[in-house]
Amino acid sequence: xxxxxxxxxxxxxxxxxxxxxxxxxxxxxxxxxxxxxxxxxxxxxxxxxxxxxxxxxxxxxxxxxxxxxxxxxxxxxxxxxxxxxxxxxxxxxxxxxxxxxxxxxxxxxxxxxxxxxxxxxxxxxxxxxxxxxxxxxxxxxxxxxxxxxxxxxxxxxxxxxxxxxxxxxxxxxxxxxxxxxxxxxxxxxxxxxxxxxxxxxxxxxxxxxxxxxxxxxxxxxxxxxxxxxxxxxxxxxxxxxxxxxxxxxxxxxxxxxxxxxxxxxxxxxxx
Length: 271
Known about the structure:
Blueprint: H1 2-31, H2 34-38, H3 42-51, H4 53-56, E1 64-72, E2 75-82, E3 84-85, E4 90-99, E5 104-116, E6 122-130, E7 134-136, E8 141-149, E9 157-169, E10 176-187, H5 190-263
Parallel strand pairs: 3-10
Antiparallel strand pairs: 1-2, 2-4, 4-8, 5-6, 5-7, 5-9, 9-10
């Protein structure tokens, strides 16, 4: 019991530490610009993306989560993507741009999805340009959805996104830009998931066998008690029958002895 107590305590402590680290790392990844990201070694990007898994999956809505959100200088950009995807399947992407003030001129929004290969090599899966040279008024928005095919030979782990936004406010000559990189969606490990499902099925089967064993054991105990009760009653009945037979035999011997004695009694003489 003491070992189990300390194991649970250690597990809770590690979960707390990992949650805090995930939050800090994910925040750092979100704040990286694309230029700074591409200067990092690919293996570092892979590690950062994988560490952020437990944090970003908290915002799941109907199988999707908001992997990117920008609200800056009159422009709001939101990107949602399928939270988990299998190799060989499509991941669904939804992009939405909203004007937070009047007369926003969007010069262009581009969203790239890439995967990291073995040894840290990067492969671009899809590059989508959204809203080129578009004017939006206050509260007006544009939205688009599309699918991205995940190659069959993709390794388990994160796909990461890169977004580039360029816009301006009409009447202002300043061109605003924003570039970010972030974890996008997670490619699941199919062999591991298959093994996990088989384990859960076997574990469920084992629980069923244990329940049946308990039921049979209870039935056996109940039947054994009834057998013992019936055996006790039978023994008592046999004892009573034996005593009755003994009584009859004894009575018969007594009667025969009496008759024999009467038969051998000497005859009386008269004078």
